[in-house]
Amino acid sequence: MSIRIEQDTSRFRQIVRGRVRENLRKYMSSGELIGRQGRDLVSIPIPQVELPQFRFGHQQAGGVGQGDGEEGTPLGFDPDQPGEGDEAGNLPGQHILEVEVSLQELAQMLGEELELPNIEPRGKENIESRVDRYTGIRRVGPESLRHFKRTYREALKRQISLGSYRYDQPTVIPVREDKRYRSWKTHYEPDSNAVIIYMMDVSGSMYNQKKEIVRLTAFWIDTWLRSQYRKVEVRYIIHDAAAREVDQNIFYHTRESGGTAISSAFRLCRDIIRKDYSPTEWNIYPFQFSDGDNWEDDNEKCVRLLADEILPYANLFCYGEVSGPRGQSQYMRILNQVGGEDKERVTTTTIKDKDGIYGAIKDFLGKGR
Q: Residue 182: exposed, middle, or buried by beta-carbon count in 10 A (0-12, 13-18, 19+)?
């Protein structure tokens, strides 16, 4: 019975996984997942999976296959037929099942759907961490690692085969030969760390809808990079004409009224890298978000700072332009001209609305850096 339940559970999880993957693009543009995120799990509503129900009643109570009707008559309600009246209904609605999916599983689905390559970390390339994983069963071991279910099963099999098991008094007593213990295998994994440095323009032109797009995009960036590295730190920089480091809450909820000087954020990003993140020990990912409005004289300063003092130390620099009504900005056109051997480390993309998050993630993370 327990084996059958495990098989049913496994099959159900495969169905859920398929539903999540089919609707991944919808989830990426929805803020529901962020609100339901826990430390290691995220709760996902799946209305497509219906829960079976049993109903008991008298045989003549009517129902499907009973009563009046002709062959071919559709059953249930007509979805195209409008409802009647303004009063509250008393009938059950559509069932929405909430399932918990680990962030690791969610990252795996993201990688499969967007065909993202695994990242090859730099820094600490020759340092490996020892990880013990319990993957097998053996007959000897410490009592603290005894596998109670396997031990019980072996004892039950032995008593049944010897004819000593009494069904009227079911008592199972393991002996030494019945005991089974968990065994482990040592794996060596690269010990790689990563830091994500988010920079965002919070001047008056970056209104709340644009910040929500940034928040959703950052969630999926975090999810993927945390699946690729053992340790991930996140730093937040906001700027208008001046830049400062803040926490996550202030990052997404602050709005200033001043002008815009993106170079101030680049200088602060450079200082954080120099102070806390040696490129020999860390994989560095600066992500910048803006609507592209910047003082024209400041654009050249940004390019020099990026090319000389950020790119040489970063795995990848990504710029997401949350576009306004004027289309691609002059700032993005200048970034696209950053050349030299570091050109492959610069990725720019335009995010017109929430539906554009899907393509932005593929652009940002599709290089496997």
A: middle
Q: With CA atoms as reference, report the closest residue to 349 among 340, 152, 57, 358.
A: 358
Asked if residue 277 and residue 174 are part of one domain, the reply reads no
Give tens-digit pLDDT for 331-366: 888 888 886 677 788 999 999 888 888 889 989 888
Q: Which of 168, 188, 208 is the last residue of a domain?
A: 188
- Token representation of residue 208: 């709340």
Q: Which residues contact 340 (CB under 8 A, 6 or more apart)?
A: 307
> 123-168 pLDDT, tens per residue?
554 445 566 777 788 888 888 889 989 999 999 998 888 888 888 8
Q: Which domain holds residue 337?
A: 191-365
Nearest-angstrom CA–CA distance, 220 and 128: 27
**Is 9 a member of any domain?**
yes
Q: What pairs with residue 282 in β-bridges?
A: 193
Q: Does residue 354 sit in the same domain as residue 251?
A: yes
Judgement on whether residues 163 and 201 belong to the same structural domain of the protein? no
77 part of a folded domain: no
User: Average of pLDDT values for 244-269?
Assistant: 86
DSSP E strands, 173-242: 181-190, 193-201, 231-239
Number of domains in the chain: 3
Phi, psi of 204 (to 5 degrees): -60, -25
